[in-house]
Amino acid sequence: MRPPLLIALIASLALPTAVAAQSTPASERDFCADRPGKGTPTCILDRGRWQVELGLFDGARQTDGTTRTDTWDAGDLFVRYGLTGLTELQLGLTTWNHERILDRATGDRDVADGVGDLSLGLRHSLKNPDGSGLSVAISGFITAPTGARDIRADGFEGGIILPVSIPLNNDWSLSLSPEIDWVSDADGDGRHGAYTMVAGVGRGFGQWDLGAEVWISRDDDPVAPTTPSTFDLTAVWSPPSLPDAQLDFGLNLGLNDDSPDVEFGVGLARRF
Fold first, then answer.
1. Cβ burial 42-71 (10 Å sphere, 16+ → b, else e)
2. pLDDT for residue 97 is more than 70
3. Predicted pLDDT of residue 189
4. What is the pLDDT of residues 171-182, one digit of tens each?
5. Signal as a keyword (predicted)?
């Protein structure tokens, strides 16, 4: 996506519309976004509604004894469409990704950048599609290797997620997102499984929703298996004049050597 188009998309998300300026109809579900955080929500869009979620910026740094890896993303686009009251269609694309690996001993740098891969998915509600009360859904996705040569995966990948939301009391909620993925080997020769769990709690404070998550993943790559894990903090601001929009922030802290030391992101979402 070229910069002028990205700027135009950001402006369209930020500007109010006649629909957004009105109060949410009683029959319409509350606004609910996938951003921020690594967990997957259980909510489904109303039939015929669109939602655009955009990561404006995401940066991460990971260091070890010999290298330092810096990763930057911009324009992480996620589009959702309500097919029925129980099922929604999803499309994802990172419009620009940049990775730089620095050899700390020699100063040599290996740089890769370009557009990311395209993903297509569905999410179907098994209980309470508005995300209220005890809510359960199932989500599946497939990712096509459409990105830049040094960025894309070595073939098609996919996964299945079973998100669950559990109210703890009137203020706090617990979310769980177990996930199984089928991903490419690091050497590009074959596929293997990866297994993820995200557990988080959240609470609303007026115009703000704050959350904390623990993310852990096991990647059974035959070349170099890893078990990255992070502790993530999220904050979402919902402007009173835009009930169908949010601005969000995320801070992720690595819990082991397989994880980025620190990662920070900011983004927004808008329902149409």
1. bbbbbeebebbbbbbebbbebeeeeeebbb
2. yes
3. 87
4. 999 999 999 999
5. yes
CATH number at residue 180: 2.40.160.40
DSSP code, position 1 = -
CB 121 within 8 A of CB 93: no
- Do 230 and 249 meet the contact criterion of CB atoms below 8 Å apart? no
Instruction: Indicate the range of 21-25, 70-74, 241-245 predicted with least confidence.
Output: 21-25
Token pair belonging to 19:
């629909």
Distance between CA atoms of residues 11 and 76, nearest Å: 15
Distance CA 132, CA 7 (A): 34
Report cis status (omega within 30 of 0) of the bond before 41: no
Q: Which residues contact 236 (CB under 8 A, 6 or more apart)?
A: 33, 35, 36, 208, 209, 210, 211, 246, 247, 248, 249
Whole-prediction pTM: 0.88
- What are the backbone dihedrals phi and psi of residue 9, each rounded to the nearest 5 degrees, phi first? -65, -45
Q: Among 3-12, 28-37, 49-58, which is the least confidently predicted range?
A: 3-12
Task: Fill in the amino acid letter for 24.
Answer: T
Q: How many domains does the chain contain in total? A: 1
